[in-house]
Amino acid sequence: MTTEREGPETKRAELVSLVVLDESALDDLRKRVGYDHGFLCELIDTFLGEAPSLLDDIRQAVARGSADAVRMAAHSLKPSAADFGATDLHRLCLEMEELGKAGSLQGIEEKLNMAVAELAKIASALTAVKDG
Length: 132
Fold this sequence. Notes:
Layout: H1 8-20, H2 23-32, H3 37-64, H4 67-83, H5 87-101, H6 108-131
Helix pairs in contact: 1-6, 3-4, 3-6, 4-5, 5-6
């Protein structure tokens, strides 16, 4: 079992991630992976690899007029956003999922653009966590 490293780099990563990420959710995730930094990094890489594709799925679903496909993609991204403490992205996914469930595409593009911008901030914060 790897223990959590303490030091200036860890503290810097925590400060950076606080801006975008809910540190308590991130701490919970650290605990769930047994403070295994390598495994946490793998989870981060997986999330950062899959999230853009899911947002692209939402964009394509809007172009096709498929509210149900919006619902499914937003639903798929939502729990991972919560796991990493990305509360704003989680909220946007929930809102898009609910709109899709209601059969509405109204406002989805605006929320999607906000989600894309949020993901860029999240990627920077999670990279700092990996480097910490």
